[in-house]
Amino acid sequence: MREKSPELEIRSLLIKPVKCVIIPHKNPDGDALGSSLAINHFLNDKGHKSIIISPNDYPDFLKWMPGESDIVNFKLNTKESKRVINSADLIFTLDFNDLSRVNEIKSHIEKASAKIIMIDHHENPKDFAHIKISKPEIGSTCELVFGLIESIDKDSITAPIASCLYTGIMTDTGSFKYSSTSSNTHRIIAKLIEKGANNSEIHQNIYETSSLNKLKLLGIALKNLKKIDNKPYVYITLSQNELDKCKFKKGDTEGFVNYGLSLKGICLSIIMIENSDEKIIKMSFRSKGNFAVNVLAEKFFNGGGHINAAGGQSADSLLKTEEKLIEILKSLPSEK
Ligand code: 5GP
Ligand code: MN
Fold it and tell me: Fewer Cβ within 10 Å of end Cβ, the chain: N or C?
């Protein structure tokens, strides 16, 4: 007998009303929040009891998304979050492939009796879910959620759902410019606009709401940009002191790393940001073509991600991390 598709399995779990918890990865981005909110709207519209629990806070530029104000922050509401996770029938995990990406929520998901449904587009997913929609070749989790909702009920894509999905697809494809953007991505985007996503307003909400401090911090980041001699690689550092000078708020450094890739001939850009509270250096890696930054992040900086966009961290000082990075980059073959 042919196995049921994950979409059909999910559909059959939703025949009677169920209690659902939706969990995006820590430091959720537009795709993690967009996909979580879209599923949450869909489930509540269909008469289920659904709630989103985020491992931690997220940037202000995402705090306009429809339904966003109902998201529960695990860090601020730990007791209530644990209770809800414990009594859920279904747990949806969105936009991550490994439970280490949800901090302390990991152990509560592992203990829960709920069926776990993973929807994600990162490579090499860990085996923690009962049902998996895992497609690394797709540019965003929001695209997968669109497919899921459409397969269950085409007519249930409301304007709020359309706005959430549009946001995640836009942010995870670099506004439809990364190579993961397909003709199908554009077909989905067209349908979302027809369903009520206001593309121009969403673009402004995400990209044109910077504070003056954020722009000043970008100035410092660009001043700090350095190129590796004779290699098409650049990197940026930001110290805690520099962040403090510009009254850093979560999300202020989003997108800074991409400026390195705007340089002609550069195929690798890295940003290293000091975080004194967590005592780590947070790193972001971006590349063009077949330079696999997820391999670099995983091998040397305890991270991972996609071929052209990855993240990681270092427990060394900013200076030591910079020295280690220079050494690694110098030893890489130029032609990659
Ligand atoms: P960003 O640089 O924007 O933080 O992350 C880029 C990509 O790398 C995202 O797809 C994100 O999921 C992934 N990523 C970021 N940080 C980490 C990390 O510490 N570990 C892993 N495995 N992936 C990460
Ligand atoms: Mn994503």
Answer: N
